[in-house]
Design a protein that fits this description.
The chain is of the alpha+beta class. The protein contains two helices and nine strands. Strands 5, 6, 7, 8 and 9 form a five-stranded mixed β-sheet that branches. It has a four-stranded mixed β-sheet with strand order 1-4-3-2, with helices on one face. The longest helix has 14 residues.
């Protein structure tokens, strides 16, 4: 359904260090800068990008928005969360763990990136 996700940042170096650590925790590679200065991450068939806003205005966060990253296991979700908090992100919502609801049994971990974007690592349990 989606072709890619891009978030804005006010500090490319800080954001790249943060997202490089998150993707490494999921077995991914560091982001690559394109000719326009955006940083691209290709992982598990998906594209995620960070960029300074094209209009030159400051990057802002989405109120109510969350970007979800699929992870392979609860351990990978925990590593993702740890990498985020050790690289400028902040824990958000409840601590990483199992949740049961209308979507079934899930293992979730939530973070805010250094610019305030809300992120989630999600693993579907049996």
């Amino acid at each position: 359904m989606f072709s890619h996700v891009m978030v804005g940042t006010n500090d490319m170096a800080r954001s790249k260090a943060f997202y490089d650590a998150l993707f490494a925790a999921m077995g991914g590679k560091p982001g690559q800068e394109d000719p326009l200065g955006r940083v691209l991450y290709f992982h598990r068939g998906a594209l995620f990008m960070i960029s300074k806003p094209i209009d030159g205005e400051p990057a802002t966060v989405s109120n109510g928005g969350t970007i979800g990253f699929g992870v392979a296991s609860p351990e990978e979700a925990d590593a993702w969360h740890r990498a985020g908090t050790e690289n400028g992100g902040t824990a958000a919502e409840d601590p990483p763990g199992e949740r049961n609801g209308s979507a079934g049994r899930l293992y979730l971990a939530y973070l805010r990136d250094p610019d305030g974007n809300k992120l989630c690592a999600l693993h579907r349990l049996g």
